Amino acid sequence: KPGNIDDDGPPVICEQLLRCGIAAAVADALRVAKGDPNPDGEHKANLERLNDATTTCAQRIADAASAAASRGADAAFEAYRREVLSGALGGESGEAPPTNGAEAPYGRFNARFWRVHAPSSMEQDDFALVRVLMRLLDPGSSADPTTLRLACHDLGQFATYHPHGRSVLRQLSAYGSVAQLLAHGDESVRRASLLCTQRIMLSRDAMDKLSMVSRN
């Protein structure tokens, strides 16, 4: 069937052009451009009609793109939520960020993911997912280095991208849970723990300055 701006699928451009009236408006404008006299003498009205139709269509396409992006963001967070609740991290959201400077897919290693979800979705049910991540840091709960490392990573991202993330984590006593892993036998877990403790204790500006110093 014809594409619909409200359908899950992408809108069909020709259908949108017809629906917004652009096709008819363009035909009128072309007739004027070719010197074909408009029997009603409404050249100005035709141009206004074309402008209005173009604006309407552009807005509909922008709305469709925004709705599609929102659905994609919701699906990505739902996959992340299932992973955290499973107690074994590194599945649907990945174990490590991509190398060679490639942008990470929309998920735990993508900053946009945390900018969107840290101040909203992660607050649901009194920070339920944050509390689950903290429980995963208990060596008695998980001995898997990947899960420990990624739990530290995710808590650090929450601290960075939630406007009050550092305060929330301190109130939940997350610092002690993370700091105990500084003596873990796995080097990657120790590094992740150190970075997370820094993110909990230091502001984002301070972390940026620390990163610049370490690079120099």
From TrEMBL:
Domain ATPase V1 complex subunit H C-terminal: from-to ranges: 110-203
GO MF, one annotated term: proton-transporting ATPase activity, rotational mechanism
GO cellular component terms, semicolon-separated: vacuolar proton-transporting V-type ATPase, V1 domain
Protein name (record): ATPase V1 complex subunit H C-terminal domain-containing protein
Top-level taxon of the source organism: Eukaryota
UniProt keyword annotations, A-Z: Transport
InterPro entries: ARM-type_fold, ATPase_V1-cplx_hsu, ATPase_V1-cplx_hsu_C, ATPase_V1-cplx_hsu_C_sf
